[in-house]
Amino acid sequence: MVPRPAGPPQRHGPRRHRPGQERAGRDAATIPRGKIIAELTFGFWRFLLARQYRSSLWPDLAGAFPHAPNRALPTVEEPVKRLHECRNRIAHHEGIWHLAPEARWDDIQNVLGFITPTAAAWVADASRIDDVLARRP
């Protein structure tokens, strides 16, 4: 095994695990693995789907989306990228109505459906988004 060169963690991508570990607590030996994963940001997961990982990570990550209509990275990457952009605008208190909220709702449903159609159906049944969108100005 070739040792990795020392240096700062990458800003995006699979090696950006330290922030999750730092948010979970300082002593990595006592932090449950699930706690570190739970502390990873949406940006971390979004950038795992970046095209630069098409040949290295995507072949393995594709298995996480067993119900995607094909095994092509853009099928999953594009809706996740749009959702990440929308999430960031919301987090920064920016307007989102021009981002076609109905289309973002479709993105959520599609990505969930790529993972498990049961989850997509549950979210659709439990959500009030259709009512909220129908009442918008």
Give me a quick take on this structure.
Helices cover 55% and strands 0% of the residues. The protein has 137 residues and is mainly alpha-helical.
Structural account:
The chain has 137 residues and is mainly alpha-helical. It has eight helices and no strands. The chain has helices spanning 18-24, 33-38, 42-48, 58-61, 73-91, 101-115, 117-126, 129-135. α5 packs across α6 (101-115) and α6 packs antiparallel against α7 (117-126). It is globular. 7% of the residues are buried. Residues 1-9 and 13-17 have low confidence and may be disordered.
Number of strands: 0
Pattern of helices and strands: HHHHHHHH
Count, helices: 8
As a whole number of angstroms, the C-alpha radius of gyration is 17 Å
Contiguous runs where pLDDT drops below 50 for at least 5 residues: 1-9, 13-17
Main β sheet profile: none
| Termini Cα gap | 59 Å
Strand content: under 5%
Q: What is the molecular shape?
A: globular
Mean pLDDT across residues: 84
In terms of structural class, how would the helical and strand content be classed?
mainly alpha
Instruction: State the helical fraction.
Output: 40-55%
